[in-house]
Design a protein that fits this description.
Length: 303
């Protein structure tokens, strides 16, 4: 498969698109990002890397990190996790609160904000230094010790993340939060601020195309844990657009409001895109189009 020429065509098409969506502004730091950025990077099962566009510039991965905290929490407490958070698609935007109250403080899935807050609570309970230990986990998986949080993005969201405070207090009121709201959200805002390039993202998510083994050949998750996390990405990774992503692209994946998307075809490849303009559902507009083109042009999706 000539991935390089497919990625070159996709990048060219993306750069010529007039309507790139809208950059997220509800986190003030993210409003500063240049909407003209576009990158796509793919690693295949022979560890060959193909890329086009801005693939070495770090950006805020935001909700993409929800998959990584899920992996760490699953590694730490196994199936007990599912007593605290469900695995059903919500069909709702990522920050909605209504289902949370109807369902007694048990979030629909770990990839919406409320679910990730519960997963952060698990990490705060189980890790000695939650921020430091989680960062170390991401660095180990990527084999890259330059990866870091962007504290200005974390601070910016802390000042404006009122809905996340509301979700955390609601969860706490139903006794599904063991730790203090401020401590849990401090971790949540930090993990959302992780800054990675498309190239670093495919290094990290390689794990999910390779049955839990990272590029350094170390096992971080079991085959069954990866099966479950990929299923959650497929059904819940794009909120109220999860069906659309499965329909258009046909891969388990995850988006973030920083404009990143990462997706995997188990045994075959892992791909990351970055284009900061979002569609109305909060997913990268050109990223979705690029991945639709990738799976359509190559015929390589899970279907
Ligand atoms: O909590 C928030 O709203 C952001 N830190 C993350 C949201 C996000 O990335 C949703 N993804 N598309």
């Amino acid at each position: 498969m000539d991935f390089q020429s497919v990625l070159d065509t996709i990048a060219q098409d993306a750069l010529s698109m007039q309507d790139k969506g809208q950059v997220a502004t509800y986190i003030p730091e993210l409003a500063k990002i240049d909407i003209g950025k576009f990158g796509i990077c793919l690693i295949d099962n022979k560890n060959d890397i193909f890329s086009a566009g801005d693939t070495d510039e770090g950006f805020s991965i935001q909700s993409i990190s929800k998959v990584l905290i899920l992996a760490k929490a699953f590694q730490l407490i196994g199936d007990d996790l599912w007593k605290r958070v469900n695995v059903e698609p919500s069909g709702d935007p990522f920050n909605h609160l209504s289902l949370l109250e109807q369902e007694n403080g048990v979030p629909r899935n770990p990839l919406i904000n409320a679910g990730a807050i519960v997963v952060c609570d698990v990490l705060v309970s189980k890790l000695k230094n939650p921020k430091k230990d989680f960062l170390q986990f991401v660095r180990d998986v990527a084999g890259d010790h330059t990866i870091n949080y962007d504290t200005s993005v974390a601070q910016s969201e802390k000042r404006t993340g009122f809905k996340n405070f509301a979700a955390a207090y609601m969860i706490k009121s139903y006794k599904n939060l063991e730790n203090e709201v401020n401590e849990v959200l401090d971790l949540y805002f930090s993990i959302c601020s992780l800054a990675l390039s498309c190239r670093q993202l495919v290094h990290v998510f390689y794990l999910f195309m390779n049955h839990g083994k990272c590029l350094q050949n170390k096992n971080h998750l079991t085959v069954n844990q990866v099966k479950r996390i990929n299923a959650i990405m497929l059904t819940c990774g794009f909120y109220d657009e999860a069906g659309e992503f499965a329909f258009e692209v046909g891969l388990p994946g995850k988006s973030g409001v920083g404009g990143g998307i990462v997706a995997v075809l188990p045994n075959k490849y892992c791909v990351a895109t970055w284009s900061p303009g979002l569609n109305k559902k909060g997913n990268s507009k050109l990223g979705m189009l690029a991945l639709e083109q990738l799976t359509t042009k190559t015929g390589l999706s899970i279907f």
